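Q: What does the assembled structure look like for these inputs?
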Amino acid sequence: MVTAGPPRPTGALSHPPGSPAPHRGRRPARGGTASRARRAVPYLLIAPTVLALVAVLGYPLVDLVVLSFQDMTRRELFAGTSPPWAGVSQYRTVFTDAFFWEVVGRTALFTVVVSGVTMAGAMLIALLMRRVSPWVRLTMSGVLVAVWAMPVMVAASVFRWLVDADFGVVNWLLGQLPGVESARHNWFEDPWQGFAVIVAVVVWGALPFSAITLQAALTQVPPELEEAARVDGAERSQIFRHITFPVIKPAFVMVTTLTAIWNFGVFNQIWLMRSGQPEKDYYLLGVYSFIESFAVNRYSTGAAIAVITVLLLLVGAVVYVRQLVRMGEAE
Amino acid sequence: MSVDSRARRGSGRRRSLRADGLGLLFCAVMAFPLYWMLLTAFRPASEIRRNPPDFWASELTLEHFRRAVASETFWSSVRASVLVGVGTVVVSLVIGVLAAYAVARFAFAGRRAFVLVILSVQMIPLAGLIIPLYLLLSDAGLTDSLTGVVLTYLVFMLPFTVWLLRGFIAAIPVELEEAAMVDGCTRAGAFRRVLLPLLAPGLVATSIYSLVQAWNEYVLAYVLLSSNDKQTVSIWLVSFQTSFGTDYGALMAGATLTALPVVVFFLFVQRRVAAGLAAGAVKG
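A:
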């Protein structure tokens, strides 16, 4: 009865890669046109998706690369003529520009800081949620979901109000600390402080997804194992390092990669916090590429920066997809 | 021994009390921005600008909401957002469910490659594609049109829709469809009469999630839509921010209005989508 296949509550996930789906075993393929037609069915089913992706994603991606080897200005855009070829000169301009490297460094630092803070915070919250009473856990989940649902626009507006120079509640709170003079303090004057606010918005918005996912992963940790280690006299940090963490590691890697990828492409929060006119100190790669294209009208330079950004992100994407494949998710 | 266990239980209770305290503190910090938004939106203007700030409102008012709704583009932006959201959801759902069905139920050459593409595509940052998308749509004469926005939203909705629906379909026992086919149903019939009804919760969850994403999207809509009457809610909120300057009462009322439908919808689907987002990392 092997051919019938076991009942599969999680569906196609549970059978090993490469093995045929069970229903095929049950209905042996007949020769001739009927089976050829049947073989075409899945391709017909994915055809619309493939077509749509090629049209709205594949074509623009290719166009982006082509554009980065040309020199497109406003004139070509409005005349509809094809822009002149420029070879690698856009890339040369970008790579020899010290400011570009500054932006790359800032983006990398931003990604590391936000992802680090988010993941550390999410891990602590997820661990804490295992120890609290049920009603506190319910409250925590409720708050997390409410925050998760907040649109980025709304979050940015609210945080701007919180750090408002004149009547912001953050300035007032800091002023309560002994020796801190914070009245009328403008948070965006110094880019380090401005970025502290931006990091706070991004982390605030990213914590819920990470914490909820890690918390769900923690429920997979067998309590007997932790109990046994405790009986054997293991420290709490040892239990976490050697028992708890290895179980949730796949989920942890996945969430970290996703968070890092999202943070690397952050645009909205900066754009909104700076009212659509970010100072140069606030440029990250996404903002830089956008401004080069749509504010300065150097579309090709913007395209070159975008290509570089996508290539850098591919590194993250490879880690993410490999993790999925290793977990048998991508089959 | 009983002394020992009692001591342990005591320390356990103390520990969980401390954990509860920490948990509540965390809730307070996390929820404070939301509380402050609502408080600012509902309290009279005279109480908003006050130093030191009051953490409780003496009276509630709807004047800020009235001002926000009266701003000229509010209703047209709601209309545009709903149209874009519904359009995106319908298109991505109709073509996404077919692909998801193929991936979940058929073994075919290229399936693995298709899945890998679907997964990697989600990683491409939207900001990187704005320029070519803009050029593509301006060639097609679809800038400043809601159709154009719907088309571009497909870029990031479709892969996710396929991935999420694939999970939902895989969770439905294939034996049900097989039984229907043994009883004389065609494959298409089994899909329509057996699978689709069972998939309804998954379809609802996926479409609500896409709807929320479309409602929240900002950059593409900002670049593509120039007419006032076609701007979406997120653009409305941002322009509101610049035009009202520091009228924080109206701004927070606008923020509340923008967030409200999203929060309500999100509460329904959060559980199902969380698992899909983590791509089954937490299945069980």
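The first helix of chain A runs from residue 22 to 26.
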